[in-house]
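**Fold tokens**
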Amino acid sequence: MIELGVNIDHVATLRQARRTWEPDPVWAAVEAHLGGADGITVHLREDRRHIQDEDVRKLRDLTQIKLNLEMAATDEMVDIACRLRPEMAMFVPEGRHEVTTEGGLDIVSQEARLKDAVSRLADQGIVVSVFIDAEPAQVEAAARIGAKVCEIHTGPYAHAFHAAGRDFESAAVLAEIEKVRSTGTLIRDLGMRFNAGHALNYYNVQAIARLPGIRELHIGHAIVSRAVFTGLREAVREMKRLMREAAERGLHS
């Protein structure tokens, strides 16, 4: 059954805009859980632009839902993850000047360093995920370093969908979907879990959710944006409904 991990970074972004105490990411996590989220994702960035160390600690201690900690593969972040022990830790590329994550992690160029980081996390019982582009070489490298999960970067698909006027039958859109599908098959063939995320929203999510073998989608900005008008619980509930409908159709297609 496909699962939804809700990224609540931008709840913290709103709080940090005024350097105050609200809205509280822990409260957001509870509301997302009540709306049907299967997990909560937060990205503890090196510059602490939104989520703070204390947020991660509180989420670990106070919520009853799976926690996925996104982070750069630095000694500082690995130490934090080993201390807090989230259910899953996901290595992502990180740039100080980017607005959001702009591409997948290049595992091929840094296998030895990443393999050591994965080993440290695995020794603490943490499932390790990597955020990568839909490229076979990166999937194969992920398997070599010991990752248990590959999350495929769906930004290129989402941007192609938008550029094509939201036409699912556009050749460019179909090509991006096929990249995600075929890469997902390779991930599963190599014994890893196939997740996906980035730039997914209420209009484009179903084409990804219906792909065979996809386990979990991580979605944040679209859900938090919808929540401004409908409330977080309802925004999560609607996204989960769209995903489940698509996944069910995919099983019978």
Notes: The chain has a mean pLDDT of 95.
